[in-house]
Amino acid sequence: MTREQVIEAAKAAFLAHYGVAPTAVGVAPGRVELLGNHTDYNEGFVLTAAVDYVTAIAGAHSQRPLTPIATSASFPETTFDPHAMEKSAGEDRWANYLKGVIDELQKTGCPVGNFAAFVTSSVPDGSGLSSSAALLVAAARLLTTLWPDPIAADPMELAKLARRAENGRFIGAPVGLLDQFSSACGLAGHALFLDCRSFVWKAVPLPSDKAGILLANTNVKHELAAGGGYSERHGQCMQAARQLVGRGDAKLRDVTPALLESKGIGLDPVLKQRAHHIVYENVRVEKAAEALEQGDLFEVGRLMKQSHESCKRYFENSCTEVDFIVELACNQPGVYGAKLTGGGWGGSAVILHDPAVAQDLEAALTMAYTEKFGAAPTLLTTTAAQGAEGIQL
Hints:
Blueprint: H1 3-18, E1 24-35, E2 45-61, E3 67-71, E4 78-80, H2 96-107, E5 115-121, H3 131-146, H4 155-167, H5 178-185, E6 190-195, E7 201-205, E8 212-217, H6 229-245, H7 257-263, H8 269-293, H9 297-315, H10 320-330, E9 335-341, E10 348-353, H11 358-373, E11 378-382, E12 389-392
Parallel strand pairs: 3-5
Antiparallel strand pairs: 1-2, 1-12, 2-5, 2-6, 3-4, 6-7, 8-10, 8-11, 9-10
Helix pairs in contact: 2-3, 2-4, 3-4, 3-5, 4-5, 6-8, 8-9, 10-11
C-alpha cells in the first residue's frame, strides 16, 4: 500500500471498530540504513533514509475510563489507564511502544489523557526496516496532534523523545537514534547524514531516477528488545571504548583508526573486532556522504560492500541468508552495492542499483534464493521518502 492508502485504511478501520470517525492521524515511515551499522549508540555517523512503507495510527479523544488500542495486525486490542500505566507482557506487549511515548510526553508536561486508536502498517515486522521506530514516531505524531505540544515543531526533538521511549522502562531496548531520526526527519529524494553526538545533520541527494533501492527481506525475524546479540554488542562496544580511551564515559566515536591500531594490541580480540567495525564504519559513512554529494554511486556501492564484509567478519551480526542475498546481488549487472541493513541476525539487505535493472534483479534474487532456502525473499522496492507527520482531520 502507498502512504496515502495506509492512512485511509487506518481511518476506515477506526470508524469500523469504534463506530465514530477519528479526529487525527499520526503517520511515520520505516527506514533503511544505507551505512552506519551500529554506529548510532556509539555516537558516530550514520547515512540513512526514510522509506515508502509507513505506520499510520488513527485516533480521537475518548471519555472512556481506559484507553483502547486496536491494530489491523495479528495483535489483540488492549486497554490501559494512561495515568497509571504498567508494563504489558505476553500478547499485549506491543502496547508498550505507545505507553513509552505517552510516558515521555507526560514527563515534558504534555497532558496526554484518554484516547482511542487504531494502528495500521505496511512496514514488515522484524524485517530490518525498523517497524518499532515507525510505531513510536507515529504514536508521537498522533498524540501531539490530539494534545498539541511544542516538541512537535522540531522533528529532531520528536525523534529524541521516541528514542527515550524505546530505551525506557516500558521497552528497554538500548538503541541509538538512527531509526527514530530517519522516521521523523526523512526527506523525499534524499539520504540523511547524521552526527549522533552533536545531532547535526544534513540531507544529501539520492534521486530515484538514478538510484533504485531494493530491500530484500529474508524473513528471518529478529527482535531487538528481547536482548541477545544486540545488547551484547552494545556492551562490548562500551567496554572497548572505555579501555581504548581510558575514560568511563568514552564512546567508540572517540577512537580514531590510528588510536585503535596503537592501543588495540592488548585489547581482548573480540572487543577489538567490535571496535574495528565501528571505527572504520564511521569513516565509510563520511566518505559515502561526500560521494553522494558528488553523485558517485559507484563509490557509495563500494563502501556498502565493505560495510557488509565488516559486519560479517568483525561485528558478526549478519546471517547466512543475508550474506547470500548480498553476494548474489553484488554479482548482478547494474548493482552498485549491497549490505545488511538494521540490527542484524536476520532481517533485510539493502541493494543500491541502477533503476533500469530492477526487474531482472528481482527475478534473479527470487529464483536463486528460493532454490537455496526453499522460500522466496520478500522484495520491497522503495525510494528515499518523506518523514513523519501529524494530520488533523
